[in-house]
Amino acid sequence: MIKTRQKWMFAVLLIVCLSLWIAACEKPTETKPTSLSIANKEALTAEWLLGDADRTVEVSMEPDSFTAENTQITVTSGNTAAVEVSGMTLKAVGAGTSVITVSAGELKDEVTVTVKPVLSGVSITNKEALTAEWLFGGADRTVEVSLTPDSYTTENTQITVTSGNTAAVTVSGMTLRAVGAGTSVITVSAGELKDEVTVTVKPVLSGVSITNKEALTAEWVEGDADRTVEVSLTPDSFTLENTQVTVTSANPEVVEVSGMTLKAAGAGTSVITVSAGEFTDTVELTVRPALESVQVSNKDALTAQWIIGSQDRTVEVALSPSEYYNTQNTQITVTSENPDAVEVSGMTLRAVGAGTSVITVSAGDKNDTFTVSVEIGAPQITVAKETIEVLQDTPAYLLEGVTVKSCDGSDLKSSLSVELSDPDKMTYSFENLTVSEPGAYTVTFTVSDPRDASKTASKTVDVDVYRKIFTWQDNTWTVGNEMRPNTEQTVAGSNTGFTIAQFNLSPSTLYYAEAVYTVGDPHGSRVIGMGHFAEGNTSRWLAMCVDRGDRNHKAKDFDTTDGKSWDLNEYDTYGRFCAYSYQIANYRGIPDKDAGVVKYAIARSGDYFYAFVNDTYVCCVSLEYYRDQPTLPGIFGHAMDTTVLSSIVYFGGEQAQQKLDSLLADGSQMGAHVPADWAAASLNDNLKINPISETRGLNYDYTDTMSDFNNGMAGPYLYLDGDFTFSWEYKNTGIGDTANKRRMILEVRNFLYGAEIVQFGADLANNKYLLNVSQKESWWEQTANFPDEEKGTRYTISRRVMDGYDEYTMTVQSLDDPDLTFTRTVQWDGKNSAGGVADDKVGRPVLFVWHNYFTSGEYSNITWSIDDAQA
């Protein structure tokens, strides 16, 4: 128990000792501030005007635990007449300076403040000097100002000077400048106070002028009425009433002066001077003696032959005495007795009508006369252009720029007659000229004066007529160089789809057309070509074209009637005819290497329609729909928006036939037939194509005896529909060494190179003819009396379209023995095998292709006809 109490007492004692030790270690607490300062001296010493708002003294003490709220602060003013103190607040009670003292115990701080008086007045002190006479251009003047109280000066106070009329007085600082006549209120401002003074700038005399010189210098004869000088002063504030003006005469014997009045005292000249201050003006006056005479000095020229409307004539006059009188200083009057014949304007005469007139020339009471005669002259025709440019078949207003005038200028255009150099081709109607064909022509204008038919005029004008390329187009073609020769005309396309246009050529059965196509960005979708069109028909045409990619050529019956689509594919939904020639540059050797530039041409001769690329034959087509009506050539293509046609040529008649004959004369209608790349070995290298000759006609030689069936294909790329006959002569020149495969066969096939319809020819290995309907029966052979093929045989096949089938007749005839002949007639019902499905409709277009199967030979006098019309 005792131990427990001892432990407790020890603990209490320990706690007390620790507390005393901690207290001894703490810093003693401050009982008063150690420093004092005025914190807002800058604000207290700022400009302070008498009557301004009170200001409060702010103090700062250390330590910062002392504040104005917990410390006794004393603020005193050293000049209570200027600044009174109430607590920490200062009040401006009068002008002056006071030292403000802030105390806290022994600590203090001071600041000196100044109370300024309030500006009470501003006045201009030199108004008398400013309002003194001031002339425009005079020296600048300075505004002098007094401020109240005098503690305010122009150095310590902002003063503003303004002019109420800157057109008269301008201000720069305190300086005034006289810039124009007038009055201005000058205002001086200081704060809300101002003073004003009105100053006036007077003008300065700057000039004097005589205002009636024309009247003073008019004709003045000795003894005429006096004249008065009229004067103008500048500026107009100066007048004769307030300005001294003096008038003097240099020669008083000629002109006397009295004030502003002048008197003609005698003949002669005098200079009149008007003076005002340092300024003068003068005028020279002439006083003349009386006029003695008036004479017309050019009567001979005036009375010579004169035609109505010819050049005006001028009267020339001599006056006496000449040293005083002339046409410039004397009023001359010219009159015409007959103004219907001669009109007068001043000194000028004008011939206006046939007749005679007496002309009188007068000056004062003096005159002279002469007589002139005016005659009717020939009319005149003028043209703006000696050569007129006209577009073919396009009416052109012929009288544009044509004037037809009588000799007196009357319009005689209604009396104009027109003579045409070629009335068969030229039509003139309602003042419009239309010419049907390009070329050089003339038009002669003739007119007579209605008053005298013997007075006539003629004018001949050349007419250059340029070709109008199209009779119709789909508005996607732009003609360039239209008014230029044919060789310079161009056509640019803009259509990205199919596009057509028809050339301006009369429909016929004989024509030729060509153009050079320049193609930007060539590729397979860009197709260029031409078409054969029936007149007025823009829904169906025979298109012939080649693409600018692989150079595939097509001749297609492009029929868009009855809603059919525009489809150039060789196989289309409607089964329309399309003669397809595969890659003509690669496989047929046709020169078309440059995809960007190609010459394309088409022709028609009777029943046959031709296509050419770079002057080389491509194909021949004869379709009943087109051959039964006249057609005309035009443009066809696809995506021709980058294509420009140049060297555009088209014509008909004998010229067209000659052009076609020249293109075909080399025998190029014959060539290797390559339907697709599987027949790529059928090359022109295996053929010798010969020019057309009198003995062999259209011909070629097949020279390779080792060609397989699909490697020895040749033909004319000929496509016929309806009834036709196809014939040729054949002489064998060699055979290969493969047994039983030496054959010469003509196949008649569907135009798309479908299954063969007829196979017609010879089996040279077995001395047999081949005359069969392919796919319908086995080889049909005739072995009796087989002719000698080395001497030649004529092969003829014809087709007649019957009701529901085609009838083919095949005939062979020996050239050595014409009586040795054999004929077979077969029927084709459009099916590809016995009991098979329909392969084609009867009467459709077919193509012709030979297979030279391990044999060579001469093909001569190759002909074809439509309805017995020989090719």
Classify the oligomer: single chain
3D shape: flat
At the fold tier of CATH, the topology name of the largest domain is: Jelly Rolls
Q: Report how far the terminal alpha carbons are from each other.
A: 159 Å
What is the annotated CATH architecture of the largest domain?
Answer: Sandwich
InterPro entries: Big_2 (IPR003343), Ig-like_fold (IPR013783)
Keywords: Signal
Signal peptide: 1-23
Domain BIG2: 38-114, 118-200, 204-286, 295-373
Could you characterize what this model shows?
Keywords: Signal. It comes from Candidatus Borkfalkia faecipullorum. This is BIG2 domain-containing protein. This protein has 871 residues and is mainly beta. The protein has 7 domains: 35-115, Immunoglobulin-like, CATH 2.60.40; 121-201, Immunoglobulin-like (Sandwich); 207-287, Immunoglobulin-like (Sandwich), CATH 2.60.40; 293-375, Immunoglobulin-like (Sandwich), CATH 2.60.40.1080; 380-466, Sandwich (Immunoglobulin-like); 470-662, Jelly Rolls; 671-870, Jelly Rolls. Helices cover 7% and strands 47% of the residues. The chain contains 8 helices and 72 strands. The strands form 18 sheets. The protein has a 15-stranded mixed β-sheet that branches. β21 (255-258) and β22 form a beta hairpin. The longest helix is centred in the first third of the chain and has 24 residues, at 2-25. The radius of gyration is 62 Å and the shape is flat. It starts with a helix and ends with a strand. The relative contact order is 0.05.
